[in-house]
Design goal:
Rossmann fold; 2 domains; three-stranded parallel beta sheet; two-stranded antiparallel ribbon; 5 strands; about 40% helix
């Protein structure tokens, strides 16, 4: 939402206080650390957990992760020195009728390669399913190894994995988010009860 030299707009600042992760933390009296990024992939989520934020996991009390659609990936661009996203939506392939259109500035030498990645069969639903499961199991194992309670969500309604919670819409409205917050707080109670029996929410914080 901007950087040290860019002040977020009022709409962006309001969103930071309205998103469901912030509201859940407010309910729990906890401090929010949100590393999510719009349109990112399960690979980015795992990379953040296993590498970028790994050394800091010891400072967290609860991990809440929302995984996403398995056709999203990322790759490292040595020329730009950053990670770049790829997805079916971005390249508008395989009959996907999304609203995102590839911008001219991103139409570089790699565009045709990634377009063919989806169109020529290098990517398949089976591959996406397996990669989703790899990320799913890795996230659970990392949290377990660090003795961190985990609530694992997904917005992929076609998943075959046993997530704690499936979001019906990838972008829930305000009412749907309120219902989701209530459900996730109940999940939190269940998770913590399994770790600390006969202990209420207030004295677990």
């Amino acid at each position: 939402m901007g950087n040290d030299t860019t002040k977020p707009s009022k709409e962006q600042r309001d969103y930071l206080y309205l998103r469901w992760s912030k509201k859940i933390c407010d309910e729990l009296g906890a401090e929010e650390y949100n590393f999510a990024d719009s349109g990112a992939s399960n690979h980015r989520i795992l990379r953040n957990l296993a590498q970028v934020q790994y050394k800091g996991l010891k400072y967290f009390d609860l991990i809440v992760i929302q995984m996403t659609f398995p056709h999203r990936f990322e790759w490292y661009d040595n020329d730009r020195n950053n990670w770049r996203r790829i997805s079916i939506e971005k390249y508008n392939t395989l009959g996907y009728r999304g609203t995102n259109i590839l911008r001219k500035k991103e139409n570089d030498t790699f565009t045709e390669f990634w377009r063919s990645y989806y169109e020529s069969g290098m990517y398949s639903e089976d591959y996406g399913r397996v990669h989703e499961e790899i990320c799913f199991n890795s996230i659970k194992s990392i949290c377990k190894a660090n003795n961190l309670p985990l609530i694992l969500l997904s917005c992929n309604n076609k998943t075959e994995l046993d997530f704690d919670y499936i979001i019906k819409k990838s972008h829930p409205d305000e009412i749907e988010q309120e219902n989701m917050i209530r459900d996730l707080l109940e999940l939190y109670e269940q998770k913590m009860y399994q770790m600390i029996p006969n202990c209420s929410r207030q004295n677990r914080l």
